[in-house]
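explain this.
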Amino acid sequence: MGKATLIDLRAERGAQGGSLPPRPPEGDEPLVLYAKRKQIYPKLVFGRVRSIKWLLLFATLGLYYIIPWIRWDRGPGAPDQAVLADFAVGRFYFFGLEIWPQEVYYITGLLILAAVGLFLATALFGRVWCGYFCPQTVWTDLFLVVERFFEGDRNARMRLDKSPLSANKVARKTAKHATWLLVSFATGGAFILYWHDAPSLAQTFFAGQAPMTAYVFAGMLTLTTYALAGTMREQVCTYMCPWPRIQGALVDKDTLTITYRYERGEPRAPHKKDETWEGRGDCIDCQQCVVVCPMGIDIRDGAQLECIQCGLCIDACNGVMKKIGRPANLIAYDTDENVALRCDKKPAKPFRPLRARTMLYVVVFALAGSIMLFGLTTRSDIDISVLKDRAVPYVKLVSGDIRNAYTLKVANKQRNVRRLGLAVEGLTGARIEIIGEGLMSGAAHVTAEPDGVDRYRVLVTAPAASVVSGGATVRFVLSDASGMSSVAAPFEGPET
């Protein structure tokens, strides 16, 4: 296969988001679809991309571990943890925002925003999430730091794994895995702090007085972090994560991704000092871009499903180019269109972030965000829900009036007691009776305790003449000087 044909094949496979097909068997040799895992030993590299990744690693892990300890004053009787998912009282607190169980649609909105934002980032910059922000990438980087500390860099780790069992090998391996478990426990321990008051849980956890769920989830996250970041690593990204399969539908020829510039690098060959560069490419086939890759792939084979776009190959290649006196960025962020244009000896085009695809994502993101913002700014601090009795649809009294029974739930989102007016609309002559309060006219009052939910049994009675055949729809209205909430409910009656 000629070089031009290989480039065309790589470009075709890259557009599909996949890697090169396996080499066909020779003769009668059967095609084996299973391959044993090949251990990857990523080499430490220095450069601009690696510095950015270090910065993001410390920033993301720092936020993860610090956020549960941030305090936020919500007044007496309320938790003062800034970010807290309190299942005991059914609340999600995020600084000044408080989400109740019946407002779970806001969580759905956040998930929609996160998904569309990820689509937009992928359409612009490829798998930038995978390479820089994904928890699997961040914790794998941290685990590699521990591994290098105890076992050395790539060559030292390879020699250690191949060496016979010895006291030195056992000591290094034991120390590494013990530290991995500590980091994994810190990961699970930090996560459970988001579900309980952090200072209180920190005191009770090691005394054996914390809730059982805290121990269960801390143990689960310890084991999963240890397995995913310590032992499985690149297999998670290649076989377990669905994103590599999805991202192929989100990128296009204008997406900025990490690419090998064929027109500069080919034909590749080793290079000796003082040799001419005429008639050959800048790539000296040193394999440095391969040995630093945490996925163990060769970026020169084009866009591949396994590539997480971490950019470490850029630093490795730039370091080699500097040593041999060639221009940097043989491997760089670029678009597929520019790679093809350069191969045809045409000038490259500027990066185009504004495209139909990206503008669509921006519009959807803005629309979803605006709906959520409108809902948050206009939501009421009181809520009412009604459940009609089903066992007995209605009762016909001796007077001929029709009566329906309901259970009302009143949620008071303020932190003070409120006396609220309760009225029923949509049914002429309807009267309300709150069990324990007596029969009222068309309106009544209920008391709502602070930051809680109160339940009331309510009877609604109406003259038979005002009830149409089969019943009607009524609306319960709950209000006071600071807010109002209403809900519709059926009122059933006899068929005429």
In short: Residues 1-21 have pLDDT under 50 and may be disordered.
